[in-house]
């Protein structure tokens, strides 16, 4: 049950000190009298319904009646590093800004059965909202949560070209994420514009739908541009990916553009590039971390595709809270990417990545 996952979630940080200082009895007495006078004045002048309060904030028209809201983020990995650190930091900041408690939990292993079980445990805790990450068909568990009166958000969002407007019957009140196909297409197009004539897409996690979309887009752009393309199976271990890609590059001397679909694989292709010492050889990756940005700053990686994961956490929580308090639902889905981090903005992004914002 959730009790055993105490180390698997982060609560909203405690609120900063209110700034109250002891300045003597006379100041306290004067402040108290002023407060009482203001209270009498407000009581005498108030003619409408009093606004609801929640978490110390004031939310006029709050449909929850001032309830202390609890939102769960059903993550996939420890939020201390990598993409899930950034996503969780965004969710926690939304909780702070909106006066709600945000709890991050994750399963012991990343598979559909374990993840579904974790969401079942969250439903049993009866929170007000859950952010779910789509790693397979989540329809059944999402319906059970919605039937229990829980607001739902999903990462990712569908591509805008496929679904420009939200389906009114959608069980999710929020869908947030990057257009992964567009990201793959953007990466391929940038390499082609840089002179690449033979591309490979190194898929870090074979079978992962998001990463497959990235490689499929690269393939489509390469075919439309009349250049060579190969889809190469990588590995979540950067050392294994380095070995695979180095061998591939040595046996394919024409390859002049390599894109990896995840952070560990990106480190692997940079190692392989250094080993073969080929020039020109463009390299690019996906997602942002201090290490990835440092590779760009050092000139070892040309660019990385950023899905702006902080927004994926922040906007998801915000949209659920706005739905619960005000009945608001965005009419389209919120796309956080793709964006590109390269030498032109790496220094600024490096500072944000160190803080877990990018």
Description of the structure:
The protein is α/β, with parallel strands linked by helices and 358 residues long. The protein folds into 2 domains: 62-178 and 309-337, Rossmann fold, CATH 3.40.50.2300; 180-306, Rossmann fold (3-Layer(aba) Sandwich), CATH 3.40.50. Helix content is 43%, strand content 18%. Strands 4-3-5-6-7-13 form a 6-stranded parallel β-sheet, sandwiched between helices. Strand 1 (52-54) and strand 2 form a beta hairpin. It starts with 24 loop residues before the first helix and ends with a helix.
Quick overview:
This protein folds into two domains: 62-178 and 309-337, Response regulator (Rossmann fold, 3-Layer(aba) Sandwich); 180-306, Response regulator (Rossmann fold, 3-Layer(aba) Sandwich).
What attributes characterize this protein structure?
single chain, about 350 residues, alpha/beta, Rossmann fold, 2 domains, six-stranded mixed β-sheet
Question: Which fold name is given in CATH as the topology of the largest domain?
Answer: Rossmann fold
* Count of beta strands: 14
Average pLDDT works out at 87
Fourth-tier CATH superfamily name of the largest domain:
Response regulator
For this structure, what is the CATH class of the largest domain? Alpha Beta
Low-confidence stretches: 1-53
Distance between the termini: 32 Å
Q: In the CATH hierarchy, what is the architecture of the largest domain at level 2?
A: 3-Layer(aba) Sandwich
Q: Helix/strand/pairing class, anyone?
A: alpha/beta
| Biggest β-sheet strands, sense, barrel | 6 strands, parallel
Order of helices and strands: HEEEHEHEHEEHEHEHEHEHEHEEH
Q: If helices are DSSP runs of H or I spanning 4 or more residues, what is the number of helices? A: 11
Estimated share of beta-strand residues: 15-25%
How large, in whole angstroms, is the Cα Rg? 24 Å
List the strand order in the largest sheet.
4-3-5-6-7-13
Number of domains: 2
Helix content: 40-55%
Q: What is the approximate shape?
A: elongated
């Amino acid at each position: 049950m959730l009790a055993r996952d105490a180390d698997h979630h982060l609560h909203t940080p405690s609120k900063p000190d209110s700034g109250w200082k002891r300045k003597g009895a006379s100041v306290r007495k004067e402040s108290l009298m002023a407060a009482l006078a203001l209270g009498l004045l407000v009581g005498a002048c108030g003619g409408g319904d009093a606004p609801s309060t929640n978490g110390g904030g004031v939310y006029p028209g709050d449909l929850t009646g001032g309830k202390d809201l609890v939102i769960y983020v059903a993550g996939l990995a420890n939020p201390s590093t990598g993409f899930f650190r950034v996503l969780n930091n965004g969710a926690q900041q939304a909780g702070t800004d909106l006066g709600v408690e945000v709890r991050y939990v994750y399963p012991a292993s990343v598979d559909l059965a374990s993840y579904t079980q974790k969401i079942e445990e969250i439903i049993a805790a009866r929170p007000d909202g859950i952010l779910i990450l789509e790693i397979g068909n989540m329809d059944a568990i999402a319906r059970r949560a919605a039937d229990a009166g829980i607001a739902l958000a999903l990462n990712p969002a569908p591509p805008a070209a496929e679904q420009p407007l939200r389906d009114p019957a959608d069980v999710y009140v929020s869908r947030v994420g990057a257009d992964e196909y567009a990201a793959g297409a953007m990466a391929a197009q940038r390499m082609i514009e840089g002179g690449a004539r033979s591309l490979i897409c190194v898929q870090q996690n074979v079978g992962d739908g998001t990463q497959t979309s990235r490689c499929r887009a690269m393939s489509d752009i390469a075919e439309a541009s009349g250049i060579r393309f190969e889809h190469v199976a990588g590995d979540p271990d950067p050392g294994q990916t380095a070995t695979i890609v180095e061998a591939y590059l040595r046996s394919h001397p024409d390859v002049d553009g390599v894109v990896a679909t995840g952070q560990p694989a990106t480190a692997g292709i940079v190692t392989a590039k250094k080993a073969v010492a080929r020039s020109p050889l463009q390299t690019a990756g996906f997602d942002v971390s201090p290490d990835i940005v440092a590779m760009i700053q050092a000139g070892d990686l040309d660019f990385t595709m950023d899905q702006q994961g902080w927004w994926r956490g922040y906007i998801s929580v915000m949209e659920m809270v706005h739905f619960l308090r005000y009945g608001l639902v965005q009419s389209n889905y919120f796309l956080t990417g793709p964006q590109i981090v390269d030498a032109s903005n790496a220094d600024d992004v490096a500072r944000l990545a160190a803080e877990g914002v990018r």
